[in-house]
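Journal club prep — side note

Before the paper discussion, L.F. wants everyone to see what a predicted structure for a comparable chain looks like in token form. Sequence:
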Amino acid sequence: MQHVNCFNTFLRDVVNLSQAKLDLLAARVEAIYKALKDDPELRPLVLGKKPQGSWAQRTIINPVGDKEFDADFMLHLQEVLEWADDPATYIDKIYAALHRHSIYKDMPHTRKCRCVQLTYANSMHVDIVPYLILADGREVIVNRDENRFEATNPAGFTAWMKEKDDIADGNLRKVIRLMKYLRDHKNSFTGTRSIILTTLLGERVTKTTALLEPGCYANVPTALLTIVEDLDEWLQARPHKPSIPDPSQSGLTFDHRWDQATYAYFRARIHTHAGQIRAAYDETDSATSVRRWRELFGSRFPEPPGPATSSTAPTVGPKFPVPPLFIPPRTGRAG
């Protein structure tokens, strides 16, 4: 059974970062930005800011227990030609500006590979990522460890995410959050970075699938089943770590973000989860189906509020409505 209402409640009450925390994040980022923009040395370079990562893509989730949550924002800076051979200077300058500030100097802040991280006690940390548009038109961030620029295309990634989420009837972002919940809260496929998980799930969403299998992204559990089974099929055909290109078409890959051992573990766990999702989805007994969903997501996955409704009715026959045309068979798609 699908238990659509249970999934909606689970996302709202357990998985999603609360609106209060999102508002707090936005307020703190605005305060950090104001401090950097007001710094006498950094002020001439500051051109703007924009969210990055899971915050920007609306795939951020609640942290585990009392752990802090994190978010990134890009600090748009003016290019300084004198620093062309020393890009790490941009990170150093942001760090120094925080170190001079009356409030932030006493808060933990540190230089990372691509950002300056500012930590709020028992709450959250914010990664400040220097972002530039160079004179030749390239959009770049800084790799401090290697003291070089890296190409980036934040607008391209946002456009890709929107396109994929639109194909999935607005359910891709929800599926990504659910899978991140499995990774973080259920300790599954630990070590797989969010950018890789997001890319692999998003790339499985296609217009062809939506056309050949009408209704395959119609609600959260159905989209979850479709996308994870398609990912499992793709992974099982690739025993060795594949190359994962940046879907924003920056020309980069995410291959350095994991190794063969991490990939093999992720591949095995997705195979297990695909089977668990299928079993819970196809189960016709309501109580047994909920129990199977809870075996996957844990005890915080809610029970149905009352007698079965249309949203929790068993799937009869094929998983999706079959139009009067020939549909080529696909492995793992038996209804």
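L.F.'s comment for the group: Strands lie at 46-52, 69-77, 109-111, 116-120, 124-133, 139-143, 148-151. Keep this in mind when we get to the figures.
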